[in-house]
Amino acid sequence: MSAKMDKDDILDDFATELSLGPETLQNYVQKFPSLSVELTDLYHELRLVDLSTAADLMPLETKSVDESSEQSAAVVVKALSGTNLRGLAQNLGLPRDFIAGFRDRKIRLGSIPGAVVGNLARTARVSIHQLIDHLQNTAGPAPQMAYKADAKPLGSAAVEFDDFVAGLDLDESEMEALNKLCASNGSD
Length: 188
Prior knowledge:
Blueprint: H1 2-15, H2 22-31, H3 36-57, H4 62-79, H5 82-92, H6 96-103, H7 114-124, H8 128-136, H9 161-167, H10 172-182
């Protein structure tokens, strides 16, 4: 029970920090590594609340925010497409379908281990926030492969990360590469 109270107290203290930036998150994660996932989730939630509050206060100046968001999405899609997709898959030792699943937002964000998001963003040379924003964005259609068909392809519902990985039928070396991607280096 006291461990629960300590955890809640730590999360409350973190949420009430005056300067809630990446360095604050890093300090708390270093002090309380067992709470790194909870602290990171709380950090992202608080940042999203700050952004929505700021958006409410901005009367008609949203065009630049929308353009910035679109540019950010374009950066992530470019990093996870074409020759970049192939190079990224080779660097990670994983099949292209794994990277394409992130590009096409086939995986439910909440089910993806934080280390995977961080390591994938780092390897793709995009910010973690850009990748998270891309995975959360359901407003626009996810890019689909172009096939000649009688009807327009329909997007499918996002699946759990473990189900997505199971559907890839990874071989032993690819499973090792995935385990390396899932390992946290402590810099998240």
